[in-house]
Amino acid sequence: MKIAGIDLGPRPVLLAPMDEVTDLSFRFMCKHFGAAMMFTEFVSSDGLIRDAGASVDKLRIYGYERPIGIQLYGHLTDAMVAAARLAEQAHPDVIDLNFGCPMKKIANRGAGAGMMRDVPKMVEMTRQIVSAVRTPVTVKTRLGWDENSKNIVDVAERLQDVGIQALTIHGRTRSQLYKGEADWTLIGEVKRNPRMAIPIIGNGDVKSPEGAKEMFDRYGVDAVMVGRASYGRPWIFEEINRYLATGERLPQPSVDRRVEIAKLHFMKSLEFKHGKSSIYEMRRHFCSYFKGLPDFKETRLKLVTSEDPQEILALLDYIRERYASQP
Prior knowledge:
By secondary structure, the protein is an alpha/beta fold. 43% of the residues lie in helices and 13% in strands.
């Protein structure tokens, strides 16, 4: 599969852009375990053109992360065009437009999945961004705004016609948020549409190697994208890649191995971030790294409330020792 001139190989598995998740430290881990392509956290176009520190910092990328995309969101066309030009200066491999985030604070302003309520504006905004930058432009979106407006087949054609190089589709409407099961039927219909020539990437409920293979086989997508299933489980990329290549199902990492992975992730967070955010943003991952351990409630509480790096490292060592006999 290729996006513009970027060769991702056969059946690639991508890391989805996720706000407050796909930061530098987590991307480091996912790349280590074989993510074929990654995307930054959501970057606010308004924040970027105001030179807001948090938005500008999200543009930071490293060579080992490539290929990587910077994902932008916003509801004002002029601001999105200006932000795309600024993002291009960070030299990403693609600029991805977020037309899929269902969060109320984003969608209700007309950004993210809110764009599904004004498709002409979405298409015109995309056209102007494609014309403004040399970097390939891609889009991530949803099936539609709600059950009565699943218009992704038409939207996909119109976005391709204005020059995007790949399209990622999450198999839910905005109204569904993340509830229920993702429906890949329309994703497959977009892929089978003879008018479509760009890569189609499927997203939504890819939780296992078997699930990823089914999406490739049943719906014919060019790539699958993993989102929430990667929380505290960056090795899911290695699992899926191995299964797709050989049919072999890798065993889950032992507690000892999970501690080592969690430690590396934490040390990278301390390296890349300043202040307490390096600790706060690890908490969701810590919970997932050790999900399912018996009698873990007290230790988990300490992990997600401690603000002392040395105490957290000591807790990780304690987990290793206490659960040494666990698989």
